[in-house]
Every structure is written in C-alpha cells, then in structure tokens.
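[agent] plan:
  1. take the single chain provided in the ticket
  2. run structure prediction with default settings
  3. attach structure tokens to the ticket
  4. add a short note for the reviewer (M.T.)
[agent] executing step 1
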Amino acid sequence: MQQLEEAVATGLLDAQRKADGLFKVVDSQNLIRPGQTENDINNTIYALAEQTYGIRRYWHKRIVRGGRNTLAPVMKTLPI
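[agent] step 2 finished; step 3 output follows
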C-alpha cells in the first residue's frame, strides 16, 4: 500500500511540475491575449503540451475559458 501511495504522489508531483512549466511558457509567449478564441488558445496549449512533454490525454476537454464562460460554462439543455 505504501508503494502505491508513493507512486501516486510521484505522479501528482510530476503533473504539477509539467503544469507549472506550461503556465510559464504560456505566460512568457503571451499565448492568452485579446483577439484569440478559446479554441485557438486551447489548441495552441495542447500542441505545446504534446511537443514539450508528450502529453496527448487530458482530464478536461477545455483548458481555457474566457468571458461569460469563465464562471458559468455553457451547459447543454437536457430534454425533460
């Protein structure tokens, strides 16, 4: 059990390190700026993550949300 917890902790720390690295590059390259759509920025960050770390799988479908989507993402209406 101890080895499993250590493996999980190691994986989480590695993910945190990669995310920190991506945030720094996104900031330094000014990838989030006016005039870019959410999809454009997401695609750029996806490509950067793959190029830098070989990441192709994500927990979330969207990385960037802006404007009205920031606090209240658009939800699909379910039929009643």
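[agent] step 4 note for reviewer: The helical segments are 2-28, 38-53.
[agent] ticket updated
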